[in-house]
Every structure is written in C-alpha cells, then in structure tokens.
Design brief:
The complex is a heterodimer of chains A (112) and B (114). With 112 residues, chain A is mainly beta. Helix content of chain A is 0%, strand content 54%. Chain A contains no helices and 11 strands. Chain A is globular, with a radius of gyration of 13 Å. In chain A, 38% of the residues are buried. Chain B is an all-beta fold and 114 residues long. In chain B, strands 1-9-8-3-4 form a 5-stranded mixed β-sheet, with no helix packed on it. Classes of the chains: A mainly beta (112), B mainly beta (114). At the A-B interface, strand 4, strand 5, strand 9 and strand 10 of A face strand 4 and strand 8 of B.
C-alpha cells in the first residue's frame, strides 16, 4: 500500500508570491490534515479536511487555505508569502480523522 | 497547548531497552495516548496508541498506568536508527470538535549511543 505522498519535496519562492502544495493520502483514507513545522514553533496544526469539508482549523492567518477533492487528495495554498512562512509542511492522512494518522515526507518551503 | 509533559532528552545504549515516560495527568476518559517519532527532517512516524490497556506491536510497547495519568513507551532493543524525537500525544476519540487534530509538544530527543 502506498504511503502519503507530498509534492513537491522542495520549493523556493519569493516574498509576496503564492504557493500550492499537494498531498495524496493513503488509499481509502478520507481525512487529511496539514501541519507546519518550524524550529521555533515546532509542529503546529493548520487544518483538517474530511470528505471535501474543512472540519477543523488551527490558529493561522487567512493567507493559509486548503481544499480537498472528491478523491481525498488535498492541496494547501499560501498567498502573499512572508519570510516567516519558511517551514516544513506536512500532511497526514487517516481513515476518519480519529484513527491513527500517517504522515508524508513533507514539503520544504523556503521563502527568500 | 499540548496536554502532555515529556523529558527534553534521554540517552540509551544500543541494544538496551529505551523507556520514554510521558505525563498526561489531565487526560479525559475518551482520550487516547498516541506515540509518534520523527527522525531528522522526515515526517513523523506513527508508533503505537492505547486507551487504558497495555499495547504491544512490532515496534514498541506502551504501558499506561491504571489511573491513566502517565505512560511509558518501551523500545525493547534500541538501535542507532531509533535516534529521533519522540512525541507523546493525547488525542480525542470520535465525536469531538478536535477530530483530525494532533497537538504536538516538544517531545523527547532520544539519543541511542553505541
């Protein structure tokens, strides 16, 4: 069974640009969650989608958004990038959102 | 905020058992204890979870105290590849407004030494 796949693995963007990250969950998993990891703040929850609906949202500005498609694949978008958005972005999938979650390898975003 | 407290770092000799403690004194009856680990710059890896009974799988054992206020993750024969940050997380079961959300603390950095 294939694991969680995140693309791209690495990304360099300029301040003010926008970026879209993609996450393909494990087959059959309907819940996808996104996390941001920085050295200063650790792993922080961004949002969770289940059956194309956002069920939960963390404490991030509106520049951070996401969506989920009917095949459970998810994207997250960050608009008007700031230097502080440089981070490892991780997605995790689980069957329902209350069972064990499995993480992808992450997308390393660098904003210059 | 994370509902768990873990030591910042621990060392373990290769081949010996690594016992990682976690305190979760405010855990509710419908909350599970989950353990994940993260090897440098990779995505966190699920290890094990439990509600109130001890659990064992191919990776580790989880011992939860009877009052559920603390737990211990045991790696029976630690190897150098077990060097990682280990996160203990309290997670709600179905029906909560926090479904799909894992709250990570700072974790325990386990260093396995030859």
């Amino acid at each position: 069974k294939a694991g969680v796949t995140q693309t791209p693995r690495y990304l360099i963007k300029t301040r003010g640009q926008q970026v879209t990250l993609s996450c393909s969950p494990i087959s059959g998993h309907r819940s996808v969650s996104w996390y941001q990891q920085t050295p200063g703040q650790g792993l922080q929850f961004l949002f969770e989608y289940f059956s194309e609906t956002q069920r939960n949202k963390g404490n991030f500005p509106g520049r951070f958004s996401g969506r989920q498609f009917s095949n459970s694949r998810s994207e997250m978008n960050v608009s008007t990038l700031e230097l502080g958005d440089s981070a490892l972005y991780l997605c995790a999938s689980s069957l329902t959102g209350t069972t064990e979650a499995f993480f992808g390898q992450g997308t390393r975003l660098t904003v210059v | 905020d994370a509902k768990t407290t873990q030591p910042t770092s621990m060392d373990c000799a290769e081949g010996r058992a690594a016992n990682l403690p976690c305190n979760h004194s405010t855990i509710s009856g419908n909350e599970y204890v989950y353990w994940y680990r993260q090897i440098h710059s990779q995505g966190p890896q699920y290890i094990i979870h439990g509600l109130k009974n001890n659990e064992t799988n191919e990776m580790a054992s989880l011992i939860i105290t009877e009052d559920r206020k603390s737990s211990t993750l045991i790696l029976p024969h630690a190897t150098l590849r077990d060097t990682a940050v280990y996160y203990c997380i309290v997670r709600v079961a179905a029906g909560s407004s926090n479904t799909g959300k894992l709250i990570f603390g700072q974790g325990t950095t386990l260093q396995v030494k030859p």
